[in-house]
Write a structure and sequence with these properties.
504 residues; alpha/beta; Rossmann fold; TIM Barrel; eight-stranded parallel β-barrel; four-stranded parallel beta sheet; 15 strands; 39% helix
Length: 504
């Protein structure tokens, strides 16, 4: 049985044509498709809308060929249309005039290889998980009820399944019942973090469904609480008391999760991991929990990597709940990181595939693989630009400032401005100078961290990325173009202003 190769039609603008053809020349044979490139009468492809493209395609098909037959809107045999990723509007507008499937490609044509690679992977079921996140509110007795509810809702929004009320040892919190009832009434699952039986009893009567923790000091009261508990050793280093506690809880019909207790680096970390393995061998079907805050809170390193590694350990070992905190400033996104990591680990373990190129939101510091256009493309761009605005690029260790017949580069932004002044490329008004300074500072950050920089777009900080605030001449040009295209069916093509993004 023979298979017909795909014939993909890529639609782009004039500035991106050369770069797109270069990429496709290498990509198409590797992926296995044939292609054509449709260059619209527009400078920057990002300013196109689907209704505008549809009108252009419909108009071209209305022009008869030399033999009098209709001219097709697309090359014969086209099986799919790929638009620039930034192209706005409903795809149906183009499908209606071409009767061909249409999709948006990546926002940057240099990521077409990733785009086609991603399409070949089965991620249709990605997002499943089976690890519960318990997020602790530390020193809850020191906070107001309003503050506790606010923090609980934020933790829940970030992915926490259970909110753990952290009590202060050595005293009994008089308002523990009020706090637990408030959260339960708000639809939040609650655990109580205390060894004090009287404090625990009040919390359980108010709706807490899990107790952290139980050892030989309070196990005698556990059967009276009527809820699930977490069993821990009296002495983690020797596991003293753990097996006796688990045996008694099981005998008395108390649901139990076992936590051998994770130790910080330098205080038995490796041995503590081994204890989790030993407990799993001793209790192959038992529910287990790991308190991962002992590593994230007590290690001078960004928490995402530690969380992902420990979640992966838990996934492989069948530890179905983790307790985390986010007190220290470098761990204040731990709940969100655990939420992403549990999906990544579940996918890797259940599909027996590497947890790679699947969850980019966990990559913050080095997020956004840097791409490079090269001097030839940037020089062509400088020759093609007719407006007074500049495009900024950060690649090959330097900042590139590209304008009409100007291509300057330097690692030093101050030197770059000096060269711009010496080139006599025009006088910058204060707002334009401020805009360039803002963008160039982002470009310097991208070079420093090895990130990809795209003008007028936020740097990629993974799940911490914030939307870019619209600013500068390119923003105004895009808004004006959108208004123009929505009100005039025969409007001239919009032109570029400050946009750096080179798109298909």
């Amino acid at each position: 049985m023979t298979h017909t190769r795909e014939q993909i039609h890529f639609i782009t603008g004039k500035l991106a044509e050369h770069s797109l053809r270069q990429v496709l020349e290498q990509l198409a044979p590797r992926v296995g498709f044939d292609y054509t490139v449709g260059v619209m009468n527009i400078t920057v492809a990002a300013l196109m809308t689907t209704p505008w493209i549809a009108r252009k395609l419909a108009a071209s098909s209305a022009i008869p060929s030399p033999d009098g037959s209709p001219t097709p809107a697309l090359p014969p045999g086209t099986t799919r249309i790929v638009l620039p990723g930034e192209c706005s509007g409903p795809l149906e507008a183009i499908r209606a005039v071409t009767n061909v499937p249409v999709e948006r490609g990546p926002k940057d044509l240099r990521r077409l290889d990733e785009f086609f690679g991603q399409e070949s992977r089965d991620l249709s079921d990605y997002g499943a998980f089976d690890i519960q996140i318990i997020a602790e509110i530390n020193h809850a007795p020191r906070q107001s009820l309003t503050a506790i509810l606010l923090e609980a809702r934020q933790l829940q929004a970030n992915g926490a399944d259970v909110i753990d009320i952290g009590c202060d040892p050595g005293c009994i919190w008089a308002n523990v019942g009020d706090a637990v009832k408030m959260l339960v009434d708000a639809g939040i699952r609650v655990s109580i973090d205390s060894f004090e039986p009287r404090e625990i009893a009040v919390a359980v009567r108010s709706g807490a469904s899990l107790v952290l923790s139980v050892n030989s000091t309070n196990v005698a009261a556990a059967a009276d609480w009527g809820c699930e508990v977490v069993a821990v050793p009296d002495v983690p280093a020797t596991m003293a008391g753990l097996y006796d506690t688990v045996e008694r809880l099981t005998r008395e019909g108390v649901p139990v999760r076992i936590d051998p207790v994770l130790e910080p680096i330098g205080f038995g970390f490796a041995e503590s991991l081994g204890r989790y393995l030993n407990v799993r061998r001793s209790f192959p079907d038992a529910e287990m929990m790991m308190g991962i805050g002992n590593l994230t809170e007590l290690t001078d390193v960004d928490s995402a990597g530690i969380n992902a590694l420990l979640i992966g350990f838990c996934q492989e070992l069948g530890i179905r709940s983790v307790l985390t905190t986010q007190v220290i400033h470098w761990a204040q996104s731990s709940v969100r990181e655990c939420s992403l990591a549990r999906m990544l680990s579940h996918h890797a373990v259940t599909h027996r595939t590497l947890p790679k190129h699947v969850e980019p939101r966990l990559i913050s510091l080095r997020g956004g693989k840097p791409q490079s256009h090269g001097d030839e493309v940037l020089d062509r761009l400088a020759e093609a630009i007719r407006d007074p605005n500049f495009r900024i690029f950060a690649e090959r260790g330097a900042i590139h400032l590209v304008g009409a017949r100007v291509h300057l580069e330097s690692r030093d932004p101050f030197l770059l401005f000096e060269r711009l002044e010496a080139a006599g490329a025009g006088t910058l008004d204060p707002s334009h100078a401020f805009y360039l300074g803002y963008e160039i500072s982002k470009a310097v950050t991208a070079l420093t961290l090895g990130k990809d920089y795209r003008q007028d777009q936020p740097l990629d900080w993974g799940h911490l990325t914030q939307p870019e605030i619209g600013h500068g001449p390119s923003q105004r040009a895009a808004e004006a173009a959108a208004r123009q295209q929505s009100t005039a069916s025969h409007a001239p093509a919009p032109t570029a202003s400050g946009a750096n993004i080179i798109l298909p």
